[in-house]
User: Which sequence fits this backbone?
């Protein structure tokens, strides 16, 4: 059957509709944003040393251990030295003794941070990453009464996009410049045949760094040391503290080390810093009570912070998210229109 003007018009309409569907500005913007997020772009890595020389911040990753963390805390208390514990939220809120250890850390003047627990954050959408960070912060808040500001991602799972999300929530990320590899002291670590590792190796790793600066003209470095309190490192940490004092280093927590302006945030989903010393309250959390000046500043803060985030399963992939305020999904509407026109065209054949 020959074409008439109606059929020609229909064909042209389909072509135009397909063109706009494939060049929708919202789709293209989301596509570019996702490509930038996942690309291995260059970025400024987190700080790995203190802002001032002569300082050493002892930090512990991926804790806590019911058997080893208390020993580390005993050593720190005996030496009157502050430290920073980056806690995995895996067991927080599930084991009463874990929650109690977090409250002990705060009561004894240490800083509690978050050690990321979950999938590689570089593979998450912005929404999923935000929701997971908020959820992990809430778990620690419910256990100990604080929203940590200090954050670490394992295995250097960090890039510009991940950093941007963490920054938007008020987190401060950091690395380290002394790593004695004391994870080799864990029973779960299988060492190569003939290899031994003891507390002496841990102390030696610090002394090597101290000596590098001392022999360069009596200088001092600015160090962040990392250890795993999942392993029996307590006695070795005592030796490191004694050595650092002999070299006249000041032992500080990560907030002092980075001059970050505060160790905790006012809420789980907002970037505001909880001003140190602004309140001295008693916060009831989990199965016990923690008394610390590093707790929530007001009941309104606790109320806004305790709202549970939306489940990550409802997160929309970045390449289908429409700008805030849109009443419907434009790309989906366009595709529906194309399908409708195609159906009309088929009926006219």
Assistant:
């Amino acid at each position: 059957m020959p074409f008439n003007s109606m059929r020609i018009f229909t064909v042209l309409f389909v072509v135009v509709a397909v063109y706009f569907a494939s060049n929708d500005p919202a789709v293209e913007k989301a596509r570019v944003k996702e490509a930038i997020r996942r690309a291995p772009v260059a970025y400024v890595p987190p700080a790995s040393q203190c802002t001032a020389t002569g300082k050493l911040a002892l930090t512990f990753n991926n804790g806590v251990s019911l058997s080893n963390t208390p020993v580390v805390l005993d050593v720190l208390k005996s030496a009157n030295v502050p430290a920073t514990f980056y806690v995995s939220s895996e067991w927080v809120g599930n084991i009463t003794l874990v929650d109690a250890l977090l409250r002990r850390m705060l009561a004894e003047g240490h800083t509690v941070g978050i050690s990321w627990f979950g999938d590689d954050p570089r593979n998450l959408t912005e929404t999923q990453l935000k929701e997971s960070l908020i959820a992990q912060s809430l778990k620690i808040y419910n256990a100990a009464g604080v929203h940590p500001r200090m954050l670490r991602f394992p295995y250097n799972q960090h890039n510009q996009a991940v950093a941007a999300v963490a920054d938007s929530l008020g987190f401060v990320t950091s690395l380290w410049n002394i790593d004695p590899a004391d994870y080799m002291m864990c029973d779960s670590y299988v060492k190569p045949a003939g290899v031994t590792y003891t507390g002496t190796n841990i102390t030696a790793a610090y002394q090597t760094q101290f000596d590098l600066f001392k022999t360069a003209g009596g200088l001092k470095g600015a160090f962040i040391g990392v250890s795993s309190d999942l392993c029996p490192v307590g006695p070795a940490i005592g030796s490191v503290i004694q050595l650092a004092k002999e070299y006249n280093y000041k032992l500080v927590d990560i907030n002092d080390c980075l001059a970050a302006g505060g160790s905790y945030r006012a809420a789980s989903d907002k970037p505001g810093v909880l001003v140190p010393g602004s309140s001295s309250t008693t916060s009831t959390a989990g199965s016990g009570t923690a008394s610390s000046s590093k707790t929530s500043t007001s009941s309104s803060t606790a109320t806004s912070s305790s709202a549970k985030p939306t489940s990550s399963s409802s997160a929309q992939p970045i390449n289908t998210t429409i700008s805030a305020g849109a009443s419907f999904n434009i790309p989906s509407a366009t595709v529906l229109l194309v399908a409708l026109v195609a159906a009309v065209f088929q009926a006219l054949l």
Summary: The radius of gyration is 27 Å.
